[in-house]
# Entry
Amino acid sequence: MASVARSFTRVASQTAPRTSTLRTATTSNARRAFCRQRFQPSSRRGYASGPSGGSSSTPYILGVLGLAGAGGAYFYFNNGSLTQLKEGSSGESRGVLTPTKDDYQKVYNAIAAMLEEKDDYDDGSYGPVIVRLAWHCSGTYDKLTNTGGSNGATMRFAPEGDHGANAGLKAARDFLEPVKEKFPWITYSDLWTLAGVCAIQEMQGPVVPWRPGRTDRDVSMCTPDGRLPDGAKEQSHLRAIFGRMGFDDREIVALSGAHALGRCHTDRSGFDGPWTFSPTVVSNDYFRLLLGEKWFFRKWDGPKQYQDVTSKSLMMLPTDMALIKDQEFKKHVERYAKDDQAFFNEFRDVLVKLFELGVPFQSKPEDRMTLKPTGSD
# Structure
């Protein structure tokens, strides 16, 4: 059963033989594994060298509309009309719900439970694709026009959902639909970013502060194609894409550390394979592999990508290799490779920034909440 498989710790997921250049920092990994025993991936899941495996609705008078931020009242929209809530997670059966931290914790717990039980996705976890959804819905922000970002959840609509960079993310959106049905008061925009926080934390990553306040928008607010990174390009492209959002070199490298998770697919990006041996565990392995392994161009019919010399089961994109070709980027790669806690701290901070880009919050930064990971009590 999935719950039994997940009883293995992160230490167990990293005990398969590797050459010295591929070994993880076992001391820090063991410390984190024993201190944070939750959503533990099995050895099958940790390594990627093998195959992947009704009440009525009564309209309110529009004059009462008041979509507020963290502390405001939320209303449930159904087919474009303002209706009473079907069910409130704080015990209300009808009427207006003012969500509290406890309500958001319940949403978090529902997502975490699904991540625990549903293991029919890549490497046995939907976690990485959920992180990608949160990343891509936020990474469309343009600071010059103040458009895009997580506010709106416009990937729900065909123009944006069909962008090449978003290929495969329907799986993540569909995964979260049962949560949306259970908690109809939460916006898609808040749900997707909260799910990203949940996935990071449940995959043994840092605790990421988060706050609600995003609203859903219509198809007219879809962003143009081309705002997300293209893995086939190099450092000038990275600086252009991330600079448009307001990120500096250090933040670009920190965000790139998300490539410790997941894998590429030939039927989506065209690329193929995982970046690390533990694609369902947040770690600094991505940086250590970039520096410690030798990489060569893979000989195949697909797009240009790199393959590791030792196992020939890992891959890096041109944008990944740009991080060690460019000396300004490389110094941060080296720092994160040596110090996983430095990476965790800065990865946490840059995720907070990414998920909040362009959101017109009515709350203050100090109102951010931290939601408890599974098994943290």
Summary: DSSP finds 14 helices and seven strands in the chain. The radius of gyration is 21 Å. The CA atoms of residues 131 and 196 lie 5 Å apart. Residues 1-84, 86-90 have pLDDT under 50 and may be disordered.
